[in-house]
Amino acid sequence: MSGKAQYAVLVTGFGPFDGVEENPSFSVIVTLPTEIHLPDGRSIRLYIHRTPVPVAYDHVLKLVPTLYRQYPAMDYFVHVGVNAEAEDYQIEKRARKGDYVRKDVTGRGFEGSDSEFWRSLPQELSTAVDVDRLIKTAFSGEGTPKVSASEDAGLFLCEFIYYNSLLAAKNLRDEGGRNVSGVFVHVPGGDGPDDIRIGRDVLVAIISELVA
User: Partner of 110 for a Cys bridge, out of 31, 57, 117, 142, CB 3.0 to 4.6 A?
Assistant: First the structure.
């Protein structure tokens, strides 16, 4: 993909859930530009999913395959969620299969974990993105926001959408040779204007570095 002149990146954010009435992840992504122009002349087309993803297992399970069909030119994905207890931005390296017992906004945990299909899946999936290199390159300068790598996405809807998206990308590679990769980004819980502006800049830097 390094020879492409334009890349396509899908970006999603979540809706409200218990304790988070207005999810900063969605507030941030809707401020992103639809196109990023890189210094070397290449560009990135952002496909922003402008409906907040419901914090519900069944919905995410159906949504991820739909998004991959809806955006067949996608090169990368960036799923965004909130970690209200964090002070820094976190880029997740992996996603686990479960157990997803924490109840979603419908009052249920994930009920498909006992199926033969789910039991056959890998215990965890890792992103093909070199997260450590990305952070070192994009966020090591003086005055840049604090961004860290994480291997614990929380075993809730954030990790669930990440696992399902990594699985969909893996299936594309295995079945059709199409290369899609991406990351999950946790933003802190602040939702003021400065928080949203910084979050936007962090995501633009991450997305720009994905195609480097």
Answer: 57
Beta-ladder partners of 92: 150, 184
Give the bridge partners for 46, in sequence order. 9
pLDDT tens, residue by residue, 75-125: 999 999 999 999 999 999 999 999 999 999 999 999 999 999 999 999 999
Main-chain dihedrals φ then ψ at residue 128, nearest 5 degrees = -80, -10
185-211 residue pLDDT tens: 999 999 999 999 999 999 999 999 999
Buried b (16+ CB within 10 A) or exposed e, 23-58: bbbbbbbeebeeebeeeeebebbbbbbeebbbbbbe
